[in-house]
């Protein structure tokens, strides 16, 4: 549920070449995610970008479905999967509201650096719930930008220059977690990786 496909298609090659901003925080996040996954799990990552995290976690599960609405991100992700010879991953061009995802059969759904970019947070979380089995896990990490309110007037200029996506939301961790609960989830773990402002809120939530 985003309207930024052209932006992400345009920057996909540059995005794929960028190093991880904070390697320690990234490794902490991947470690926490992996601790909640089982070898028998069927897992989806929505908004997977070039599938870096999906590929890192695929060996931990039975099947990984990595999805992104950007055709160029998906193309690069598929090339990486082939180069790394990861066989239990499928990388699919699909938005969060794609009916192919709403099976109610997945053990876990992951969304990283995505929820602050969606058009409608509540509707997105309802779609996530439709993907999961009862008791399935929604695992996310989201920049909570409320403290960076001063960026609001700058973003329209950056969008005109092609340097920022549209629809960036400025909410707090409390607002994010309240929305997750409204969608019928019970929050079982939270954290901030890295532990600094603005928080990158890590949330593990279980579907009721």
Automatic annotation (TrEMBL):
<protein>
    <submittedName>
        <fullName>Class I SAM-dependent methyltransferase</fullName>
    </submittedName>
</protein>
<dbReference type="Pfam" id="PF13649">
    <property type="entry name" value="Methyltransf_25"/>
</dbReference>
<dbReference type="InterPro" id="IPR041698">
    <property type="entry name" value="Methyltransf_25"/>
</dbReference>
<dbReference type="GO" id="GO:0008168">
    <property type="term" value="F:methyltransferase activity"/>
</dbReference>
<keyword id="KW-0489">Methyltransferase</keyword>
<dbReference type="InterPro" id="IPR029063">
    <property type="entry name" value="SAM-dependent_MTases_sf"/>
</dbReference>
<dbReference type="GO" id="GO:0032259">
    <property type="term" value="P:methylation"/>
</dbReference>
<keyword id="KW-0808">Transferase</keyword>
<feature type="domain" description="Methyltransferase">
    <location>
        <begin position="43"/>
        <end position="136"/>
    </location>
</feature>
């Amino acid at each position: 549920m985003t309207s930024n496909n052209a932006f992400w298609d345009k920057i996909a090659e540059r995005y794929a070449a960028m190093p991880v901003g904070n390697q320690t925080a990234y490794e902490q996040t991947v470690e926490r995610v992996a601790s909640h996954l089982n070898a028998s799990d069927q897992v989806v990552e929505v908004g997977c970008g070039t599938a870096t995290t999906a590929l890192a976690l695929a060996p931990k599960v039975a099947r990984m479905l990595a999805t992104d609405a950007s055709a160029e991100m998906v193309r690069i992700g598929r090339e990486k999967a082939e180069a790394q010879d990861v066989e239990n991953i499928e990388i699919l061009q699909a938005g969060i509201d794609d009916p192919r995802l709403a099976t109610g059969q997945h053990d876990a759904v992951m969304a990283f650096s995505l929820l602050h970019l969606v058009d409608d947070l509540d509707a997105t979380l309802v779609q996530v719930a439709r993907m999961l089995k009862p008791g399935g896990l929604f695992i996310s990490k989201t920049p909570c930008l409320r403290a960076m309110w001063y960026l609001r007037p700058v973003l329209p200029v950056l969008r005109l220059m092609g340097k920022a996506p549209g629809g960036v939301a400025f909410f707090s961790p409390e607002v994010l977690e309240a929305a997750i609960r409204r969608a019928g989830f019970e929050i079982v773990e939270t954290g901030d990786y890295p532990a600094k402002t603005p928080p990158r809120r890590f949330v593990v939530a279980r579907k009721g």
